[in-house]
From TrEMBL:
Chain segments annotated as coiled-coil in the UniProt record: none
TM region(s), chain numbering: 12-39, 45-62
Pro residues compositional bias, start-end: 639-648
Key words, A-Z: Membrane, Transmembrane, Transmembrane helix
Pfam families xref list: EAL, GGDEF, PAS_9
The keyword Transcription regulation is assigned to this record: no
Ranges of residues in domain GGDEF: 239-372
Organism per entry: Pseudomonas lalucatii
Residues covered by the PAC domain: 155-207
Extent of the signal sequence: none
Domain of life: Bacteria
Protein name: EAL domain-containing protein
Length: 648
């Protein structure tokens, strides 16, 4: 368009100049007063000059035009060359290339694209790149990608896509938006390479550096790295952990007598048995030779480490059948808890090592804590669990019953069943000494089931023999309550014993309820629907929220005995007792005071309006036969009665 405009302007200019030349030169010649001959000569000269000038002008213009044409054809040749080169690169490159239009429809792919994805060009042209999606990335990932493309015009990163075969693979992806002359996005070009081989070798390298090739367990290096992390976290006060060093006893003999191949098989099999005992947050490593390490990142109490050590030792109890041999192997375990006054992570391992030495010198096939006191404590606990298991099997548990009285007239109302252990050597063991151990070791489920059934049967027996009791109360351990199957168990026991649900009361501690208040509320509602009574035990010690308490479907609050102990003189205890009684009544609940030992306490509580009382003043926990015969029903507040003595 510019050239055309220039050409017409030039022509006009030329015509104007030529016209002026003709007019002015003729006028000039006429005004000179020349002779005809002179005039004619000058006229011819003027004509010749005109031709000369026009010719020169024409020559100049044609030369310029020719130059331009030569330059343009040279430029055209060069861009054709570069197009040819680009096409060759596009075809030959190892990277997959995919071009879409602005609407993200594929308009071009190269052979490498087909090689990597398995799709031919015909299969994908006109379709959207989303057909390659693996489903591994969420929408937030793609949103980020598109935002970067809009904002910066390009994006690069790792993408997991799916080949036509269905295989999911990682690729490194660069996408660019291509703008047209008006600045609008016209195309997107994506260039990608398959990095699965790279990833594989990365993994292999990591495997070699961090895992033991024989057992496929983490090696010492990975173990130390994880321990360092766990130690840091523990020191920042977020957790407590334990390291267990496990050394196989007499492994050398197996290597020497049966050869290294059998030894290797055994190490692998031991690793598998150990691994089967562990939770997700633990790291089991083979530290070298016949030594394994176990890192337990969450180990809030020594008992858990004890339990873990026992499980590991127990897992070796049955023989290994390897290469036609039946092999037995034991182990010794050293335990170090951290952070526990430990300065650096190396010390955790050193302590575990000393503990391991101690375990070995204690006669192998056992475990030891770095701290001697803990080892002794753990040993006693282990013995106790074993003995308790025997107690359950050997019928050594007993139920005693403690009366609950009306405070205003002293009438016997019901009894609370309290378990005891008739130990062959130690005599009658109180529940405080074995219930926590039973909870830790899981034996509590069996104990609670036994108590529930025995108490219900006893109540039916009392009713049959005319003992006037309104209910029997049974304590429910937080463990059993937390499992949430209590309603089914209660339904079964009621059906089996034939006890009226209204004659059974379940006591759940305030802390068990507050562990998970929502779940507790739902469980209590299920129990209430069965028709049994519900009481919150040890009330005042568990930080109940009032709002929560209001919604709990319970009938009774049992004021914890620690608040009764100081009555009537201790001002704090008096204030708390008064508040709990008022609170209970305002929520429509009955209040029982526990641990009443003195007549003044009973009288004081009665005056505060407390409904019921329980404690040595009214009667100690006694065997079932003594309940039927005791003159308990005649008791009055302030009138202690002759007591059958419970020896604990
Ligand atoms: P608890 O349910 O609060 O039981 C009341 C405890 O206070 C009983 O202790 C009882 O003997 C004691 N006690 C009653 N009156 C007095 C008193 O006047 N003065 C003093 N100092 N103590 C008094 P016990 O039998 O040793 O039971 C302790 C805890 O063990 C119970 O507290 C209960 O939480 C638990 N427990 C007892 N039996 C069972 C059971 O069968 N299953 C479960 N899961 N826990 C039980
Ligand atoms: Mg109780
Ligand atoms: Mg209590």
């Amino acid at each position: 368009m510019n050239t055309r405009f220039g050409a017409s302007r030039l022509t006009l200019l030329y015509m104007l100049a030529a016209g002026l030349w003709v007019l002015l030169s003729d006028g000039l010649l006429a005004s000179l007063g020349l002779t005809l001959a002179q005039f004619e000569r000058l006229q011819s000269l003027k004509g010749l000059l005109f031709v000369l000038l026009s010719g020169a002008l024409l020559y100049g213009l044609l030369r310029a035009q020719q130059h331009r044409l030569t330059r343009t054809s040279r430029d055209l040749g060069a861009s054709e060359d570069s197009l040819r080169q680009a096409a060759a690169v596009f075809e030959a490159t190892q990277e997959g290339v995919l071009v879409t239009d602005a609407e993200q429809r594929i308009v071009h792919v190269n052979p490498a694209f087909s090689r990597i994805t398995g799709y031919s060009a015909e299969e994908v042209l006109g379709r959207e790149p989303s057909l390659l999606k693996s489903g591994r990335h969420d929408t937030a990932f793609y949103r980020g990608l598109w935002e970067a493309l809009q904002r910066h015009g390009s994006w690069s990163g790792e993408v997991w896509n799916r080949r036509k075969s269905g295989e999911i693979y990682p690729q490194w992806h660069c996408i660019r938006a291509i703008h047209d002359a008006q600045g609008r996005i016209g195309h997107y070009v994506a260039v990608f390479s398959d990095i699965s081989a790279l990833k594989r070798s990365e993994r292999e390298l990591d495997q070699l550096a961090h895992y033991d090739p024989l057992s496929a367990l983490p090696n010492r290096r990975l173990f130390s790295e994880r321990l360092a992390h766990a130690f840091d976290r523990a020191r920042r006060g977020q957790s407590q952990g334990a390291v267990l060093l496990i050394d196989l006893d007499h492994f050398k003999h197996i290597n020497e007598s049966l050869g290294h191949n059998v030894g290797d098989l055994l190490l692998r099999a031991v690793g598998e048995r150990f691994a089967a005992q562990l939770g997700d947050d633990m790291t089991l490593a083979r530290l070298g030779g016949d030594e394994f390490g176990l890192l337990c990142e969450r180990c809030p109490a020594p008992d858990q480490a004890t339990g873990l050590a026992q499980r590991l030792l127990h897992s070796l109890a049955s023989p290994f059948l390897l290469a036609g041999h039946e092999l037995y192997i034991g182990a010794s375990i050293g335990i170090s808890l951290f952070p526990e006054a430990i300065d650096d992570v190396e010390q955790v391992l050193r302590n575990a090592d000393s503990a391991l030495f101690k375990a070995k010198s204690n006669g192998r096939e056992g475990f030891a804590f770095y701290d001697q006191g803990l080892t002794e404590y753990a040993r006693q606990r282990v013995e106790l669990v074993g003995a308790l298991r025997q107690a359950l099997d050997g019928d050594q548990l007993r139920l005693h019953y403690q009366p609950l009285h009306e405070l205003h007239d002293g009438r016997l109302l019901g009894v609370e069943a309290l378990v005891r252990w008739q130990h062959p050597q130690r005599g009658l063991v109180p529940p405080a000494e074995f219930i926590p151990i039973a909870e830790d070791s899981g034996l509590i489920g069996a104990i609670d089931a036994w108590v529930l059934e025995r108490a219900c049967r006893q109540m039916v027996a009392w009713q049959a023999s005319g003992v006037a009791l309104r209910f029997v109360a049974v304590n429910v351990s937080s463990r059993l309550f937390g499992r949430g199957e209590l309603d089914r168990q209660v339904t079964r026991v009621l059906a089996e014993t034939g006890l009226d649900p209204a004659c059974l009361e379940l006591e759940v501690t305030e802390s068990a309820v507050m562990e998970d208040p929502d779940a507790a509320q739902e469980r209590l509602e299920r129990l209430r629907r069965l028709g049994v009574g519900l009481a919150i035990d040890d009330f005042g010690t568990g930080y109940s929220s009032l709002a929560r308490l209001k919604r709990l479907p319970v009938h009774k609050l049992k004021l914890d005995q620690s608040f009764v102990r100081g009555l009537p003189h201790d001002g704090d205890d008096a204030a708390i007792s008064r508040a709990v009684i008022a609170l209970g009544h305002s929520l429509g609940l009955q209040v029982v005071a526990e641990g009443i030992e003195q007549p003044e306490q009973a009288e004081f509580l009665r005056r505060l309006g407390c409904d019921y009382g329980q404690g040595y003043h009214f009667g100690r926990p006694v065997a079932a036969e003594q309940i039927g015969s005791a003159p308990a029903a005649r008791a009055r507040p302030g009138e202690p009665q002759p007591q059958p003595q419970e020896v604990l």
